[in-house]
Amino acid sequence: MAGTAAWGEQPTGGKRTGGETARDRPAERARHWRYDDLPGVDLLRARYIRKTFVRHTHEHFVIAAIADGVEVFHHHGSDVSVGAGALALVNPDTAHTGRAGVPEGWRYGAVYPSPEVVAAIAAETTGIRGTPGFVSPVLDDLHTARLVHRVLRAADEGNALAADTVLRVAVTRLLQLNGGPLPQRRIRTAGAVIAARARAVLEERMARPPSLEQLATDLGTSPFALLRAFRETYGMPPHTWLTDARVRRARLLLDAGRPPAEAAVAVGFTDQPHLNRHFARIVGVPPGAYQREHRTDGRRERKNVQDRH
């Protein structure tokens, strides 16, 4: 298990200088977990060098504090860079990618609060009307970046009071500095209606989806018209969206205790290696490591409760 001392999570606020060789560079590693006393929040600490995240979405918010290096991610049609001491901020269901912006990669800590968690904090601490979200995908604010790392450290140490308190302070500060109401997605055009119907079919037939031509025929349109409408509505083509959705559903199955091999077949991947490849390119860790960490934290928390009694 990665401890805070080993990870050295505090951001430096600056970039590394030259002189580092490939042999000197630390290996890629990541830990994705949950802390039972932070319900509705996923946690990640990682160092990536060659890692590339394919286009994907999250049901939760992404609040990623860069400790060192540079991350580049595609967001709303353009690439944005975020360096040490700054934060990458992505709203739920927003398509984005991720990759290293410098040869040494990037090291970061991230919290993924659910929309419900963020909405509750916003209602209590801000005057934002409607659904709260982030206005800009990058915020250069070293203080808040350090707060994010403090949340992760408190969760590592089992300090529920600190983890919950600092998370609320961090989210409040982010909303005050970079918050606003999210635009409501309204299905107005015929293309958007077709895209929504296609998405519903893919959700229902995830394990055995139709071809693009068959899906278009069933919906009374052409393959290219469907492809264009789906991309405009959801930020990615149907096959990319389907892979993303399969990984999301696989996470739910892994959380419920299903073995990775069974989860792979259940969501429509041909086998576990197929799931492993896509899962790691979206979540950041392999499904086996994801499941071990999530189970471990639940067992640790139950043991802590028993010890207190």
TrEMBL record:
Domain named HTH araC/xylS-type is located at: 196-293
Using the UniProt annotation, give all residue ranges assigned to the region (Disordered). 1-28, 286-309
Q: What are the entry keywords?
A: DNA-binding, Transcription, Transcription regulation
Which ranges are annotated Basic and acidic residues under compositional bias? 17-28, 291-309
- Does DNA-binding show up as a keyword for this record? yes
GO terms, molecular function: DNA-binding transcription factor activity; sequence-specific DNA binding
State the source organism's domain of life. Bacteria
Enumerate the Pfam families for this protein.
AraC_binding, HTH_18
* Keyword field contains RNA-binding: no
> What is this protein called in UniProt?
Transcriptional regulator
**Organism expressing this protein natively:** Streptomyces alanosinicus
